[in-house]
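so my prof wants the structure for this chain in the tokens format not the other one, which i didnt know existed until like an hour ago. anyway here's the sequence
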Amino acid sequence: MSSGKPISEESPILLPLPWDSEFFRSRLGRIQAAPRAKMEKALAAARQEGYSCLYFNAAAGWDEGLRWAARAGFFPVGLRVSLAAPAGPTPEDPERPVGEDRSPEGEKALIRWAVEELSPFSRYARDPLFGEAEARRLYRHWAAATLDGQRAQVVLFADAPGEKPAGFLSLRTAGGEISIDLVAVSPSCRGRGWGRALLRAALGRAAEGGYPSLRVATQGNNTAALAAYGAAGFKIETIEHCFHIHLNEEKAKPERKTLAEAEEL
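here's what i got, hopefully its the right format
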């Protein structure tokens, strides 16, 4: 993942994205933040090599990168906000139980909330050449990969008496760090402390695993999530502007599916 700040001289500037390319059935890549001349050279190479779409992140305050993105033809698709909080044991809330026990009902809810509640905030939903159907397809795949252990090592479920499930939160470990991968609370349970209970449980799991902190990244337009993280002690570490550019609109355009077709996948 790009930090949105210029990288070292040795790092590659144009990065192919095999998983994204396979999933969206189009050749996708990322331009790493670097001195302007190097980014221009990488962009020219991407055009020559037949890339369809490129991602680019620029850290907030990096004016040169933001100006270059605008001149090069990239368009904004959102803000990526990265936060962290110290891990630590937290007392359980007996009125809001959280655990790893799962039920068919809970698994179905996880997929439904990922698609219906989280995908609208995705940068892909804001890109007209991907759009709502592709964003929903991505989040349906993401949720399924969470449940079968491909993405997340821990999935926590919250069960509200008489209204279960109340919400879920998944944890992913990589590169010596632990982070929140997906989290959602049932619309009927919001504002009743269930999100806070899930976050407190996640901080406790991070501490049990020996991690000093718990990290999360979310979209800047998800103001409810940002408020919940702030209330739970998370502090903003970085803010990045996210951009896309389509080098060949016909090649970049994924094989279009209607919303109904996407739901069947």
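also thought this was worth mentioning. The chain is about 35% helix and 25% strand.
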